Amino acid sequence: MPYHIAPEAVIDATLYTLLVFSLITWTLIFFKIWQFAKNNYYNKQYNNAFWDATDLKAAEQLPPETARGPKARVAACGFAWLAEMTHPETCTSLKFRGSPQDLLEQTLRKQTQDEQRRMESGLTMLASIGSTAPFVGLFGTVLGIMHAMHDISASGSASLDVVAGPIGDALIATAIGIAVAVPAVLAYNFFQRRAKHHRASLENFVEGFLHIAFGDSNINTSKNKD
Questions:
Q1: How far apart are the two ends of the chain, measured CA to CA in Å?
Q2: Helix (H) or strand (E) run with residue 112 in it
Q3: Mean pLDDT of all residues in 107-130
C-alpha cells in the first residue's frame, strides 16, 4: 500500500515554514538596525577624533573607547602596515615589493571589504525570504484548493456555501506568504542602501588616510569628515 501524506499536514508545514521565515526576517531586521546604529555611532566618534589629531602618531594612540568600529579597524590595519614597513628585516619580503602607497591602499581596501562583508551579512537571507515566501504561500494555497475540491466532490454539492469556506481557508496561506515577504523585501532594500553609504564612507576615509600617510599637503581633511 503506497504511503500518502495527508494534505492537511503539508498545508500546516507550509504555514510553519512561513512562521519560521517571519521570525528570521524580524530577527535580522532588529539585528541589522542595531548593527548599523552601533557602527554609525562608532564611525562618527572615531572619525572626529582621527581628524582632530595632530598627526598619524597621535591618531594611532587614541584611547580604546574612541578607537572602535569599522573605521578604527581600517585605521589600525593601516597603522600596523606602516609600523611593519619601518622594520628593515620585514620590509624586504615580497609583500612589500612595489609602490608603498599602492601596497598600503591594497591593505586598507582589503580591510574595507572585510568590514563591508560584515555589514552585508544577513541581507542575502532577507532577499531569499522576500522572493520565496509568496511561492511557499502559493504552494500551500494550491494544496488547500486541491484538498477543498476533493472534499466538495465527495460531498456531492457545489453550492456557494460549500465552496466558499474551504477556498477562502486555502487562500490564507498566500496572504501569509505575501505578509512575510513584504517586510523582508523592504528591509533588504533599506539595508542595502545603508550598506552602500557605509562603503562610501569607508572609501572616503581610506582616501584621506592615504593622503595623510604620504604627506599630501594639498588634501583638505575637513572634506573627509562625515
A1: 70
A2: helix 100-120
A3: 93
**What sign for the dihedral angle of Cα 127, 129, 135, 141?**
negative
SS3 content of the chain, % helix, strand, coil (to 5): 80, 0, 20
Residue with cell 624586504: 92
For residue 191, give the C-alpha cell: 539595508
DSSP 8-class letter at 218? T
**Is the pLDDT at 94 greater than 50, yes or no?**
yes
d(CA 81, CA 75): 10
- ∠40-42-45 over CA atoms, to 5°? 105
When pLDDT is cut at 50, 70 and 90, the band that residue 223 belongs to is very low
Q: How far apart are the C-alpha atoms of 82 and 59, rounded to whole Å?
A: 13
Torsion from C-alpha of 96, 101, 107, 108, nearest 10 degrees? 160
Residue 2's pLDDT band, with cuts at 50, 70 and 90, is: very low
CA dihedral of residues 95, 101, 102, 104 (deg, nearest 10): 60
Comparing 185 with 10, the larger pLDDT belongs to: 185
CB 173 within 8 A of CB 140: yes
Least confident of 50-64, 104-118, 143-157: 143-157
Q: What is the rounded CA–CA span in Å between residue 59 and residue 181?
A: 45
Q: For residue 18, give the C-alpha cell.
A: 512561513
